[in-house]
Specification:
Oligomer: single chain
Strand content: 5-15%
Bound molecules: NADP nicotinamide-adenine-dinucleotide phosphate
Helix content: 40-55%
CATH topology of the largest domain: Rossmann fold
Structural class: alpha/beta
Number of strands: 7
Distance between the termini: 29 Å
Length: about 260
């Protein structure tokens, strides 16, 4: 199936590695032109070059910290200046620290809100007017986590702020639907990345023990790959996936236990 992504311009956040990198590679393979962002310039340039070699696509790296309002604005302005349009926005980055909710002070909460929620709000607010003016629709997609809909103790900074992202995305989807723009949120389960390796080692015990324990919780009995997430993203941000909007979708091998 041709997803119709050829020539589309996509901004993919947090794409120097992990899930963001996998999404950038999938969209690039489908013929999209990709802007990738992350904070550390050397890693980002290296990732851009690797993506060019693997896919042959146009890749534009823009070093930026998603927690800074000025950086969000600069990413959008630079994309318009260099690529000429924006069809797809993928909001993805790192995550706030783990820990018990009562251990975090106002500064930690403010940082978590900037990183998880304000980032999404600022990027969407800057991008939507361009998508409307282009008059050919568009797609906005946020990466959160399964913990946003099935909370995990210790992940509270993210759970609370991503709850806001899901509510924001649902409301925005209602407001921009008439412009043929869809807005969705993906909630990945456990996905093979360096971040997950750190989670395995977080309690100081043998990471293989934690890995086996988590795998046993997953009905499909395996950790997901970045391509598992990227394939769902590619469909949802393509013209083929446009009729799905306002959804929070688990990509988790069956880990989410609710019915809704
Ligand atoms: N891996 C999993 O199992 C899993 C499961 C569910 C949800 N998630 C969520 O999915 C997202 C991506 O996870 P991942 O595993 O792919 O992480 P990762 O491998 O650590 O990659 C994170 C990417 O985001 C960039 N980044 C981090 N902080 C940033 C900031 N403030 N501004 C701009 N870029 C930033 C990083 O580059 P720089 O450090 O250079 O900025 C890197 O490119 C996270 O929100 C994570 O919580 C992950």
């Amino acid at each position: 199936m041709d997803l119709g992504l050829k020539g589309k311009v996509a901004i993919v956040g947090g794409a120097s590695m992990g899930i963001g990198w996998g999404i950038a590679r999938m969209l690039a393979r489908e013929g999209a032109r990709i802007v990738i962002t992350a904070r550390r310039e050397p890693n980002l340039s290296e990732a851009a070059q690797k993506l060019r070699v693997e896919t042959g696509a146009e890749i534009i790296p823009i070093a930026a910290d998603c927690r800074r309002a000025a950086d969000c604005a600069r990413v959008v302005e630079t994309t318009i200046a260099r690529a000429g349009s924006i069809d797809i926005l993928i909001n993805n980055d790192g995550a706030p620290p783990l820990g018990d909710l009562v251990s975090f002070d106002d500064t930690a909460w403010a940082k978590a809100v900037e990183q998880n929620l304000m980032y999404v709000i600022r990027m969407a607010r800057a991008v939507v007017p361009h998508m409307i003016a282009q008059k050919r629709g568009g797609a906005i997609l946020n990466i959160t986590a399964i913990s946003a809909i099935q909370p995990i103790a210790g992940f509270g900074l993210s759970v609370a702020t991503w709850g806001g992202v899901i509510g924001y995305a649902k409301t925005l989807s209602l407001e921009v639907a008439k412009h043929d723009i869809n807005v969705n949120t993906i909630c990945p389960g456990y996905i093979e990345t360096t971040r997950l390796e750190k989670v395995f080692a977080a309690d100081g015990s043998d990471p293989r023990v934690m890995r086996a324990k988590l795998e046993a919780e997953i009905p499909m009995n395996r950790i997901g790959s970045v391509d598992d997430v990227a394939a769902m993203v590619a469909l949802l941000v393509s013209p083929r996936g446009r009729y799905t909007t306002g959804a929070a979708i688990a990509v988790d091998g069956g880990l989410f236990r609710g019915v809704r």
